[in-house]
Amino acid sequence: MPTATDIAFALAVLAVTFSSCPAPLRAFLLTLAVVDDLIAILIIALFYTDTLRWGPLLAGAALIAVYGALQSRGVRTPWAYVPLAVLAWYFVQRSGIHATVAGVALGMLTSPREPLDGRPTNAEQADHALRPLSAGVCVPVFAFLSAGVALGGPALGRCSATGWPWG
Questions:
Q1: Who's near 12: CB < 8 A, 6+ residues apart?
Q2: φ, ψ for residue 55 (rounded to 5)?
Q3: Which residues have a Cβ under 8 Å from the Cβ of 42 and sit 6 or more positions away?
Q4: Which of 112, 85, 79, 111 lies closest to 100 in space, CA to CA?
Q5: What is the pTM of this model?
Q6: Fewer CB within 10 A of the terminal residue: the chain, N end or C end?
Q7: Where are the alpha helices (DSSP H) in the chain?
Q8: CA–CA distance, 98 with 90 (Å, rounded to integer)
Q9: What residue spans define the domains of the chain?
């Protein structure tokens, strides 16, 4: 059964176009999107790994464990997390497993626990920092690529010459 990662995009369209949609339906669609994407990530991790390299995988797992330990101790500075996340992504990718798995692991370890001082949680801080990149770049590029719009150099060259990416 194919897993369609477009469901999250469909959920965003639903939220914009049907703002009076019942909350239980939105919650169901969000849950469906999350479960669907987790299944897709598992498929990528299990079936698209040709050669597994244990050294980089263990390094990536160790970095992810350090990230989780810092989260559980309540470390608040993103400067501790950004290098760990980038290196974990790199080592998991080098291991032969798709780096998406590292991203999911790091996301699941990011603490939503409320700090005692009333400041935003680590998850809220990450959301605030990454939402413009996600909503402004990643989702539109994903939508274009899913629709079959070419975004490569030759297509963009035609776009500047003709005004349209398809001709």
A1: 139
A2: -60, -55
A3: none
A4: 85
A5: 0.70
A6: N
A7: 7-17, 23-47, 54-72, 78-94, 100-109, 122-133, 139-146, 153-162
A8: 10
A9: 1-48, 50-111
